[in-house]
Amino acid sequence: MSLLRNSLRYLLSFRFAASTGRNLAHTTECIGLPCGSAFSVTSPGIRSIFTTSLQKNAARTFASSVDTPEQSGSGREMQIRFVRIIAFGMILVAATKIVPLMSQSTVPHAIQLCQASEPIMQKSAAHRVGKLAETDESLQELVAAGVCPKLLGMLKPDVDPGVATAVLSAVKEISRLPEGREALKSAGAPAVLDKSVQQQWLTTQQDIDEASKISRWLMTR
């Protein structure tokens, strides 16, 4: 409560400063002083000095009200805890509003990345698809957006080894749900995976074994 009172006192000090500045400016205009006069509050030099002085006084008032020598250690600790709780609550509320929006905008972006021709972008796209596919809701969005043909299209004779590994990981993640398996089979995933093994598109034994395993998994489901 003490911290809240101090914050309100600080804000009121600035409000008083702004109100006072407006009143004095109005007064100088009423008594006929020109705006550019050296004695006019509305002149840049006097206004700057006046505003700076009031702000310093308000800040000094706030500092003296917060850091008083009489303040106990327990009171200080309670203020810190109070601020942390408020900050955590604000972050939590913001997260609940932002995360769904991020999910909606990330899926189309991942789909768009799958169409890139540079290996580094393809690898990033496959990694992103695999990460999104870890949640059922995002996986369904990916399937509905047609990610499977685009993902399998990255597997070709000159595929980068890093891209191949990322694609196989994403395909495996998509295949964990029935709708994902159906989408992969509709896109011809078993045939593409088998071809990548038979024609040696895959250069590592781990990728070869993974592609064969996923192909068998899809054909038996």
SSE inventory with pairings:
Layout: H1 2-30, H2 44-66, H3 73-113, H4 119-132, H5 136-144, H6 147-152, H7 161-174, H8 178-186, H9 189-198, H10 205-219
Major sheet, described briefly? none
Which structural class matches the secondary elements? mainly alpha
Shape verdict: elongated
Stretches where pLDDT is under 50 for at least 5 consecutive residues are 10-47, 98-104
Helix content: over 70%
Rounded mean pLDDT is 74
Instruction: Compute the CA-based radius of gyration.
Output: 32 Å
Number of helices: 10
Order of helices and strands: HHHHHHHHHH
Estimate what percentage of residues fall within beta strands.
Answer: under 5%
Number of strands: 0
* Beginning-to-end CA distance, first to last residue: 62 Å
Could you walk me through the main structural features you see in this protein, from its secondary elements to its overall organization?
The chain has 221 residues and is mainly alpha-helical. Helices cover 77% and strands 0% of the residues. It is built from 10 helices and no strands. Helix 3 crosses helix 4, helix 4 (119-132) packs parallel to helix 7 and helix 7 (161-174) runs parallel beside helix 10. The radius of gyration is 32 Å and the shape is elongated. Residues 10-47 and 98-104 have low confidence and may be disordered.
